[in-house]
Amino acid sequence: MILEAGVGTLADGSPAIPTRLESIGSQIPERILTTEELLESTRHHPHIELERLTGIHQRHVCSEGEDSFTLAVGAARDCLAHSRHRPEDIEMLINCSISRYKDGLRHQWEPPLSLSIKDAIGANKAISFDISNACAGMMTGVFILHDFIRRGVIRRGMVVSGEYISSLGQNAAKQVHWVLSKQLASLTLGDAGTAAIVERADSDTDHISVAAFATLSEHSRLCLGAPSHVGPGASMFTKARTIHKVAISESPPLLKEALDAAGLGFGDIDYIIPHQTSARAIERGAKEIGERLGMQAKRVVVTVNEFGNTSSTTHFVALRKYLGEKRFKKGDTVMLISFASGLEVGVLIFPIEEILDRYGNEN
Amino acid sequence: MGTKIDAVGTSRPHLRVGGMGAIKLADEAAHACLERAGRSAAELDFLINAGVYRDNNIGEPAVASMIQEDIGANPDPPLQGGHGTFSFDVVNGACGVLTGMHILDGFLMSGAIDLGIVVTADADPERGSNWDFPFGLVGAAGRVSRSHSRFPFAPVGGAALLSRSEDEDKGFSRFAFSTYSEFKHLLEAEMSWQKGPIPRAVADRVPGLEPGSNVLRIREREGYAARAAECAATSAHAFLESAGLEPLEIDLLVPSPTPAGFPDAFSQALGVPADRVARVDESFRGVHTAGPIAALEGVMRTGQFGDARNVLFATVASGITVGLALYHP
Q1: Chain A residue at shortest CA distance from B108
Q2: What stretch of H or E contains A314?
Q3: Residues B159 and B259 in one domain
Q4: With contacts defined as CB-CB under 8 Å, which chain B residues touch A250?
């Protein structure tokens, strides 16, 4: 994998500066759409037990006036509300939304959406740009910030994403006929925004242990999202079972490489947060990976039942929820695992330390 | 120790029927670049795609992953001890290539990678036919979305191969990016649903469709080139001052070739003589994100690039975004 440890040396032999996640924010739309309601809206009324198959009971979806931009801005503001930093302290802002909808379902290609987000939150000193890496977007953004900070180029930055992707479910509802439809995965999607501030760490223990990525591009064409021809927004076509199968079969050596770099075993991780696609797939996948790595995970976080698959934001929706609900304790180790179209395999391992204090944790 | 540019490559359509999509153009530019450098795709650790207008406006996966597969850059899982390749897209308009180089420079300087490539291409999204996805319904390219009127940018691909130089005085020494959002209305591109008729054949095949289609609109408003030159000059003066250089100490200026008139207006505003400006030939007229690579290819060929001590890259994009980099060949 392309891997950067939290400590160590740079190419010129100088010491790398450790980094950490300083704060995390989210913006979840209030409106809830249950799986039962979504299936009732399908044109062909396929007899699919989607909730039983995926464990998804509901997802939050945008109402009028909400879109990728408003979700991203809301998440950025929530992140700043829990941060020691002011907007003008942000030195780099990376937007990684796949859906870049602003003013409804108007996809903004240029200027990059990061510019509008930067203006909205007042991060007027930040270098800004967009990246696109499917559901691995937020983790890729953290990887980039980690690299810039560890070399001392910047002191802190923000990665942000707003995913207004419920239109894919609406478009799929017009076309899904049966359980093997290539658009079935679109019915699992939900809307959400997330943001995270990554900063220079001044601690020997409270820092990102490892960030690593590899793209298994022989599987790059197993999932396609593009503007729809059946209605506003986009459509997505996925060979979901094949993606899951290759992700589980081919990722264990990569995960082990990242764990080895952190000096940890799979069983040492307190909270595994995988990409949230379906509760059953997550549980089955974690078990299979655990068997391959020779030890089972202590806890595997599942939030897809409540939020659906929120694409690039899923890991940080889960983190924000767990921080807000005070589920972590100081010293816990978290491992984010990304399986995204591409096929992207990404890992981020870090401890939960000072960040707890900013969410009212009394532990 | 700095990041050096080993080689660049460009590509233009050569298929008469149907043209070529951005992915195919990027594939060919990457091949040309690697061949020129005498390197293989398997040696790549990092691949960043910076193109904006791609086959049928694909949003997922990252176009970079498809280019990685097409050129054979470690598409399968890395063997024990091997790196594999990591790829993703950067979207920053015509500054995207420089942003990609900025990111690659970082991972090279951190020691995480040894070799990386920035690839880019823009083409009319309707021209995209390099799908090869296992999905029938969207396989007929051109029906998923369409472009409003004429697509304004020339179909051009570009690639730049970067590695680490052991000579600390060589390569990139600094980057800077700035934005002038008061001018963001001067160049905008958006895709939205426009009501309108749908072809009978499609309506018969897929009943219940909403009448209309997703349409790409790109608007460049009057005054964009002049404002871009003003913004770039303001940023470049501050950039050179922080680097301790006078404009006349710049031996070679590699500017964005577009918008039309920008290279001349900017070089004059900055005070760099016209004969030190890298220009593209007529065949690259209308180039978008591949512009800096096309300009660089020309001065690499003539030897002007290799002979320079101080090279200033200056890109402008919607936003208005200005990207600057100082390079020592």
Answers
A1: A11
A2: helix A314-324
A3: no
A4: 77
